Amino acid sequence: MDPVRQQAIVIGGVNYSDSSRVVWMLTPDYGRQSFLVKGARRQKSKYLGSLETFNLVRVSYRRRERSSLYTLGEVDVENHFGGIRRSLDAFWAASQATELIKLISHEEQEGAALFELLSGFLSLTDRKSGDRAFLASLLAAFRWRLTSLIGLEPQLVECVRCEKKLTRAEKYRFLLIRGGVCCAECGGSPEPADLAEEHAGLVSYEALRFIYRSIRRFPADPEDLPQLSGSLLGEIEELARRYLAYHLDEKPREGKILPRTAPTGSLNWKPGNDN
Ligand SMILES: [Zn+2]
């Protein structure tokens, strides 16, 4: 096959033998790719410094039909994201995002949307690496945007039980098992199976609004990201953690509550509005 030349983000790696390394990268065209890099750990390696996690690179390599462990050709670093490496907060946020991508990305599967999300995240994290509050909100937005890209988008506009449009309330009951929120009527008549403690929780209107925005669009600019108070952020992150843990144990479901493509429309969401 002809050599492939494309952008990639280094998402991790593991040492292999005394001098080599296996390196994982996320690419737009082929999803996660694994490379055996011989001599990568030697001081004189031509790859020294270019295969660090988070690096945005341009790689060339030959794809083969019978193998998914490729031999790396040329690597040019396009962005080393120095800001991320100088700030503990930024480094932590970037690690969280990259770990999640490593978990959910597939080999040999087109991954342009994931690539765009991760590169956007890393570049904003790099730019705002000293702003801890911003980074925390950005990571929350990243996690929720990711749910929609992998077919796990929660249902937040209509009740997951009766399908009626939600009306404005202070809190909504979120049913992990059904992948979204239910109306006060449905939430008030518990079914033991899906209102069990580990499956449900109450979520504030403000938290749902942030999640809804994040699902539809990842911020392109720092100004696009609503700043969250500590308690609101905690609520959103806790829900993301439980939601992802719950659903990543299963295969993404088909059907209305978990559409495969992101919806389009206004970001000024209110339950009960048509947009
Ligand atoms: Zn309902």
Automatic annotation (TrEMBL):
Residues 255-275 are annotated as: Disordered. Residues 1-78 form the DNA replication/recombination mediator RecO N-terminal domain. GO terms for biological process: DNA recombination; double-strand break repair. The keyword Signal does not apply. GO terms for cellular component: bacterial nucleoid. Pfam families: RecO_C, RecO_N. The keyword DNA repair applies. It comes from the Bacteria. Keywords: DNA damage, DNA recombination, DNA repair. Belongs to the RecO family. Involved in DNA repair and RecF pathway recombination. This is DNA repair protein RecO. It comes from Candidatus Glassbacteria bacterium GWA2_58_10.
